[in-house]
Amino acid sequence: MNESILITGANTGLGQEAARQLALKKETKRVILFCRNQAKAEVAKKELEEKTGKRIFEIVIGDVSDTNSVRKAVEKIKEPIDAIILNAGGMVGKTAAKITPSGMNELAATNILGHVVLVDELLKQDKLKKAVLFVSAEAVPGVKPLGMKPVAMKTSTVDEFAAVLDGTYFGNKFDVTQAYGYVKYVGTMWALSMARKYPDIKFIVVSPGNTKGTNAPDSLPAPMRFMLKNFMMPIVFPLMGGMVHKIEVGVKRFVDGISDERYKSGVFYASKEGKLSGDMVDQSTFFTALKNTTFQDNADKAIHRFIK
What we know:
The chain is α/β, with parallel strands linked by helices. It has helices at 13-23, 38-52, 67-75, 106-124, 158-166, 176-197, 222-240, 247-259, 293-304; strands spanning 4-8, 30-35, 57-61, 81-86, 128-135, 202-206, 211-212, 245-246, 268-271, 280-282.
């Protein structure tokens, strides 16, 4: 049982819904909302208390794209945490390709950098006890019916993973919708490597699938955002079947991932091949690169090149 859970990006969307669902579980005694903005975090805390009738929410302020900010946040966490949901991230928006002080581009820094530092620091200080869930996406194995190609790296060396993280892998044409899948792949492989390094802690990777009711489309280019919100989500995906579900369904994947024994450490769970909704399955059954332990370790090494 997980009595205490920390969720990054918990003030809105998937993160806030995860906090709500977890608070309603009888074993949950503490939910930490790890957020970048104090005012938005306070609003989310109040909303969650009203929705759940629980007074178990705490706020910790930290920016997952900034290593120093995350380290300072960890110092504020005095009691050990049972589980973490590494949810903050997304496609970021127009500044995705911008290089941060770490050397990673903003897309990679927001989705990966602070999450790795958060886990490293909590482990170092013996403040993490049971489970870590990294939020990934079906963009990694691809979705053929939508023309979404799987991640296809040439060598998966440390240098190539590092090139994804600083953006040089994509040359002069940085397409955030393509880069997103590659960044999530790097984070996924890091989490799978951690499962082998820390066998007493459950490290699991889960995609929420294609969820309605989030603000994820807001970070997309305007034409794509319009198509997704006004055509794909309300009309096309429902007609295709297995392509969309409510936010409550997507977030239940997180809740089950950290607590249900059916879901094992060292596995990336997401929708069946070619789908974005429905039952979760082990993605390595059709995206075999996930099983390569050398690739996993190379991703971990590449990330730590950017952590000072």
